[in-house]
Design brief:
The structure holds two protein chains of two kinds. Chain A is an all-alpha fold. Chain A contains 13 helices and no strands. The radius of gyration of chain A is 21 Å and the shape is globular. By secondary structure, chain B is mainly beta. Chain B has one domain: YVTN repeat-like/Quinoprotein amine dehydrogenase (Methylamine Dehydrogenase, Chain H). Chain B starts with a helix and ends in a 7-residue tail after the last strand. In chain B, the strands form seven sheets. In chain B, strands 8, 9, 10, 11 and 12 form a five-stranded antiparallel β-sheet that branches. In chain B, strands 3-2-1-29 form a four-stranded antiparallel β-sheet, with no helix packed on it. In chain B, strands 4-5-6-7 form a four-stranded antiparallel β-sheet, with no helix packed on it. In chain B, a hairpin with a 6-residue loop joins strand 10 and strand 11. The chains are: A mainly alpha, B mainly beta. Chains A and B meet through helix 10 of A and strand 29 of B.
Chain lengths: ~325, ~375
């Protein structure tokens, strides 16, 4: 099928042949990524049931491992992650109105029995679920020792269990049908051609990088007159820069698979990724607290430009060889 | 014996000096922004059949424009989150005024004039507040900012005045954005777009929401018929394969009616409608999807699907002779539904999202 598509592309539009392989993307990027998330989330759940103390080293380690594995594949925002708002239930951020602490406070004050059952808790507002809610329970002084202790513990366990259930549900959907829709693109109504399948992956990289640049970096940067270090993502658990790193590594993994067979493009993108990763490593500022002073701000802004440069290259170099060049209006709707 | 000067002064006093009109700019029927092969942006004046009357430079990528009902003035808005809009005298080809959004506000790329042309209204994101606003500008006095009123929801995008009233229909797209984080959408899981009706005095008369399951359907473009019927177009922020309805009709005080083509045709829209317009007669309305390269036409009474047109990167849409006129990112200007079918004309320009019809002089 792909061979035929490639021939048509050559004959009719003189687009260079492409070598991406949807099967490889699924087998080497998607399924291992969501598999790792489900496995790590299950460990997180187990640890929470064993020891719900907010300072438990084993619990915090499991939390960070599971959160790591989410951020690595958090760009894959289509299909199973979107069903029932699962991705948002794992990761409700940014939280511009402070819904997460408010929802947790409401649950605790009401001793809401939803925490008793996995099914009931899956209907709790997404602001009270997922990694960012759990971060408050594990790292925020207001919630680490919330009273009554018995309910705090129960709530923490409910959040961990819900993360595990959500991660498992995403993996199940990928394994039991959704991956096949992409593998067999052109033979179903969801992906009517291989181009549509590759477009979904390509778009996920572009959106993932945009989110990291505009939101993970843009929100703490605020404006020059008013930097907002308190808006840095997951700053309570010291993960702000780490999440940027994981997002870069995760999208790079997919970009390499997409650019496979086009060594020049791959090399060009690799260089751009290296530049951003080097800049990030040089920051030594895990929560972007430095955005408040001129030098610190400057360095984060340069990192933002490095990431935007990757996005530009994706559009200019990778999109054409994938045959997903979008139209002037279709590219960025309004 | 009257001097020439005295004669002219007399004319001015009696208001007989003809004021500049769209005729002085070549009587275009449409305005459209677009990108030239050089990468520069221009505002185009086009005839009913797509012939170019003028092109004027724009400082950057435009979104929609607003056409003054009488004077040959176009207001070109920067794309979101733009803080500037420019008023262009299309007869002289000069920038006549610059609008700068107030602190804490930015334009959303749309605006509309009052029918008498004395006021310009601009939907604005009030990004530190719970509702957007509609800015009011004095088009008689250099486009001074003279006030604002709340739009009734987050992210007001498009606005139109119900004919013969001082009531606005406002499409509150529901998406929270903040200039600090560019165009990133900050509230997708909790967004709640709506269609609101408000008076110029800022009184919110009615707010209509979509059914809960469609809360991620950003209702953001509008068209109004002479009798006040509103057609709206939506952009789905959930998974593209959910294929929710993308268009609908509403009349103040009534229920929303959603319009959707049969499933196999509907999914060609790729869960995205970029523009909406009633046909010239108002009997039908259409939406366009640049992502699907598809325009779909529906009956204005029954909301039934009537027909579809395929054109790559189609987005700009307006009423046109006997039906609709559309533009595309590939430079096509086409007409649909007229008595004498015309083949589309082609321009060396990538037309941007919207095509704005200039009110004909007799309608004013």
């Amino acid at each position: 099928m792909r061979l035929i598509a490639a021939c048509f592309a050559l004959v009719f539009t003189a687009v260079p042949t492409f070598a991406y392989d949807i099967d490889r993307i699924i087998d080497e990027h998607v399924l291992p990524g969501f598999g790792r998330l489900a496995a790590n989330a299950e460990v997180l759940d187990q640890r929470a049931q064993e020891d719900c103390s907010a300072t438990s080293p084993g619990l915090r380690e499991a939390y960070n491992d599971a959160f790591d594995s989410w951020v690595r594949i958090s760009h894959l925002r289509f299909g199973p992650t979107e069903t029932g708002d699962r991705a948002f239930a794992l990761a409700f951020w940014p939280d511009t109105k402070g819904f997460t602490p408010r929802e947790l406070t409401t649950l605790i004050e009401a001793r809401d029995p939803a925490a008793d059952s996995e099914e009931d808790f899956s209907h709790v507002s997404i602001a009270g679920r997922g990694f960012y809610a759990l971060e408050f329970l594990l790292y925020d002084p207001q919630f680490m020792d919330a009273e009554p202790e018995e309910y705090r513990c129960k709530l923490l366990q409910a959040v961990a269990r819900d993360i595990s259930a959500t991660a498992q549900a995403i993996l199940d959907d990928w394994q039991n049908g959704y991956a096949d829709l992409l593998r067999n693109a052109g033979e179903n109504d969801i992906y009517r051609s291989e181009e549509e399948a590759v477009r979904a992956f390509f778009g996920s990289v572009v959106s993932g990088l945009q989110f990291t640049s505009d939101t993970r970096l843009g929100r703490p940067l605020g404006s020059f007159e008013r930097p907002r270090p308190n808006r840095a993502e997951a700053r309570r658990s010291n993960r702000s820069a780490r999440n940027v790193l994981l997002s870069l590594e995760g999208t790079r993994d997919l970009v390499r698979l997409l650019a496979d067979g086009a060594p020049n493009v791959e090399a060009e993108l690799d260089t751009a990724y290296d530049r951003a990763l080097d800049r990030l490593a040089g920051l030594e500022d895990p929560t972007f607290a430095g955005v408040g002073d001129v030098q610190g701000r400057f360095e984060v802004e340069i990192l933002q430009q490095n990431i935007d440069r990757i996005r530009e290259l994706l559009g200019a170099s990778l999109a054409p060889i994938l045959g997903v060049g979008a139209g002037f209006n279709a590219l960025d709707g309004d | 014996m009257s001097t020439r000067r005295g004669f002219l002064a007399g004319l001015v006093a009696t208001g007989l000096i003809p004021k500049p009109s769209w005729a002085d700019a070549g009587a275009p029927s449409y305005l459209a922004a677009g990108m030239l092969p050089s990468g520069d942006y221009n505002l185009f004046g086009l005839t009913e059949t797509g012939a170019e009357i003028f092109r004027l430079p724009l400082p950057g990528r435009g979104h929609a424009a607003a056409a003054h009902p009488h004077r040959p003035e176009a207001v070109a808005f920067a794309r979101r989150p733009g803080t500037f809009a420019i008023v262009i005298d299309c007869a002289k080809g000069e920038i006549e005024a610059t609008l700068e959004s107030p602190e804490g506000r930015h334009f959303m790329g749309h605006g509309t004039f009052s029918p008498d042309g004395t006021r310009l209204f601009t939907p604005e994101n009030a990004y530190n507040e719970t509702s957007g606003v509609i800015g009011i500008w004095d088009a008689e006095h250099g486009y001074a900012r003279i006030g604002e009123f709340v739009s009734g929801g987050v992210g007001p995008h498009d606005i139109c005045l119900l004919p013969g009233t001082d009531i606005f229909a406002i499409a509150n797209g529901g998406i929270e954005t903040h200039p600090d984080s560019g165009r990133t959408k900050l509230n997708i899981p909790i967004m709640r777009p709506n269609l609101s009706y408000a008076t110029l005095q800022g009184e919110l008369l009615e707010t209509v929401e979509l059914p809960r399951e469609y809360h991620k359907n950003s209702l953001r473009h509008l068209s109004v018929r002479d009798d006040g019927l509103i057609a709206f177009a939506m952009q789905w922020e959930g998974d593209v394969n959910d294929n929710p309805p993308l268009a609908g009709l509403h009349r103040m005080g009534g229920e929303m009616v959603l319009a959707e083509a049969p499933a196999d045709v509907h999914q060609r829209m790729r869960a995205y409608a970029g523009s909406v317009a009633f046909s010239e007669s108002g009997d039908s309305f259409a939406i366009t999807s640049p992502r699907g390269g598809e325009m779909q036409v529906f009956d204005s009474e029954t909301a039934e699907f009537l027909s579809a047109v395929d054109s790559d990167d189609i987005c700009g849409l307006s009423s046109g002779e006997g039906g609709f006129t559309y533009t595309t990112g590939k430079g096509i200007f086409g007409c649909v539904g007229g008595d004498s079918p015309r083949s589309p004309s082609r321009h060396e320009v990538a037309f941007d999202n919207h095509l704005v019809r200039i009110p004909s002089p007799d309608a004013a």
